[in-house]
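A further point concerns the way the authors explain their paired sequence and structure data. Since the whole study asks how a given chain folds, the encoding of that fold should be made plain. A single example would do more here than another paragraph of explanation. An entry of this sort, consisting of the sequence and the corresponding backbone structure tokens, reads as follows:

_____
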Amino acid sequence: MTEAPFSQVGPDLFRMGYNPIPIMPGDKKPGMMVGDEWRLFKGWNEFCVSRPSQFQINQWAKWPLAGVGVACGQGLICIDIDLEEAVAALLEILPLSTVQKKGRKGISLFYRGNTEKIRSKNFRTPERVGLVDLLAEGKQTVLPPSIHPDTGEPYYWWTEGTLLNTYPEDLTELDDDIADQIAEVLKQFGYDPEGDRIVERVVAGDIPETALTHSSDFYRKLNEDALANLHAWVPKLGLPKCQCKFGNVYRAVAPWRASGSGRAVARRNPNLSLSSKGIEDFGTGEKFTALNVVMKVMGINDSERDAAVQWLGENLGYNFGIEIDLRNRRKEAEALGKAAQHLTPLPEKIIHVSTPTHAEPPLALRAPVEATYVNNDVADDGITIQTPTWKPTKRGNLVGLLAPSEPPVPAVVDADAIPEEMGTEEVPIVPPTMDELEALCRDVPGLIGEMMDWIVGCSNSPSRPLALGPALTFVGTLAGRHHEGPTELRTNLYICALAPSGYGKDHARKRVLALAEKAGLHTNYIGPEDFLSDSALRKTIERRPSLLSMMDEFGGFINKIMDRRAGSHQSNMRTMLLKLFTMSDSSYQGTEGAQETATPIHNPNFSIYGTSTPHDFWPSMSGKGIGDGFLPRWLVLTVSGEPLRGVAKTHDREPPDRLVEWCRAIVSLSQKGNLPPSSSRPVQALKAGWGKDAEACYEYHRELFSKRANAMKNEMSVLWSRTMEIALRIAHIVAIGVNPEYPVVTEDNMLWAIRLVELSVRSCLIEVGDRLASTEKQAEYLKVRRMIKEAGEFGLTDTKLKAQVNGEFDLARLNAITTQLQESKQIDRKFTSGKTGGRPTFRWVAL
């Protein structure tokens, strides 16, 4: 079988510094394979402003018959001359190009130039006959040896110089005003500078090779269409108080400006009017175009106007086509570009990586830290052994284990404020904040980050913390059994997200399920939402040893397996979950029964993502969950505050093809001989390596957390026991999402995961102290204290406290509890007014 064009030259183009992209066989459009089917690659134009990863290049090179193109932009420009008669005249004014290619007609010339100033442009006659295409950012061109769709013959290089032997910086440079020079020459061939600004809609199936020129006529037409079809786009903006009146007139609040009277949005009048006659804010007298409104609502500035054009046009039914995707991702590209500068090519084949020498993909949430190493071991022969002891320098930061100075966001304290022997004495635990958690849930690299972006982008009430849990557990499940971390840990996780009722906790679960279904992975990797017995759990994992169960109302499941009155078939599930968590790198032997034979499960990779409210979860957990090590195995993400409402969606609910491709690729790597179809035999896994300073960072914090546990001197110290184990699993999963073929646990990944897990432990310590009880009397005591604590600085009057107790126990018991709490200096009575003022009275307040 003939090697595909992309496979032949794509990797070499990437090494030369260009951004190759896959082209559908026998076509000019970028494409991608999903399963055995070719589809349009709708997100290809991001590679005009950012580099693809080595992993993506490797995957594309495996696709049969894939053609090869190159994304223009980032300095690369191609001038594609369609009109043969114009070639000689244009070559007189164009500088000599040392790299040229040919297809069916004309010629394509490659240059370098300032693509911030030289923009893509189509030169056409008034009859829409193509003359020249100036291809810069947002465009691509097909390269040899791809097959031309019209001739059936391959494209070919016209010069000795090609993109395969010429670096981008060695290409001939163009003047910034080259478009004006070309326009002047083309006038003799029928080009009309005014006529080419007339823009028509693109019809499906008739997609040109280059994008439409956005002129004033185009914007006028776009606005006219938007006013004529308000129903297609106005409701999707999520404007506050948006209502349709009189059939075709919308009224809403203009959220981009403050109220003149200082009122909150909920109390403002809907002064923004959107009708077929125009858009006006009666509060200020300003008038807007439809595009202005979209840009204001979405916070898009003028330099990123194309993103608003894309959104509005697609909602109006414009078919921009695969080559007219105008979304501007410059901010993302800049971040990715910085990351790419740190990358060096990986070796062709790696089975086990221990200490890779290549630089690791950096994480955006990096706390700048340097490591120092102390020679603290001396061998018997007198030779000093280097044992790394990871310590932050004065300009670094350390994960916040101590009470930080105000404000406590993020969970980091200055290294200078940390004593030399930190961890040797007990310090108060600072309650975590939502700002800390939200900050950690942004800019996560690779597949995990892109899944989160999609999940929150297609929700009217987005929450990044609620998207993190299912993303981590799903990727960990796909990678399970054929990946192991540097310390042989596998990728199974137990994660519980706690949020108030009405927070939309089911959205992320549903989106991950939809992604699994579209990728064809739900049958093998998504498990039941509940289990009735330990036998059912064991049989399910026997059949599908790498499995994710996403459970709603998770507090009920915990209550079922923790209740002292539960039957053995339910309480044994807790014991089984304890063992499954730690046996993913070996075998779970199970329990022999009278009716069933214990069947070994090799390398079980069972993960759980559960959602619940704090009020349901914590009372169900009980003190038993701490004593036997059940709770320490969980990453608990506590979401608080008011949920966001009415946020404009930025993504479609349909899982993106890019994510589908990525997930299938992770699984396909395991189907090359190292993942058996069942749990009947052990698995030889790919071992991830340590990046620079990552192992030292891991060891340093493991010792630090051990000291923290020893300093607590109570049963809750066990919550620190598995902190670093969970952190390393999470860092490993993120690394797999960056590069499943050669995952490397970097120092950045490790620090981020440590901060996330430490936040979970702090939350658990606070909640356990407030909620978990060993006896019913202790539960009543904790409940009263929690009621007063949650009331805040204004406290509770006796009347309100009695109302909240609501007859759960008698008033004599309530008086005894408040007296005991007051004597132990946990609450006190203060004579003060309430939150809204009024007459002062005695109130219970927490100390």
Remarks:
- Confidence is low (pLDDT under 50) at residues 197-215, 321-389, 391-426, 672-677.
- The first strand starts at residue 20 and ends at 23.
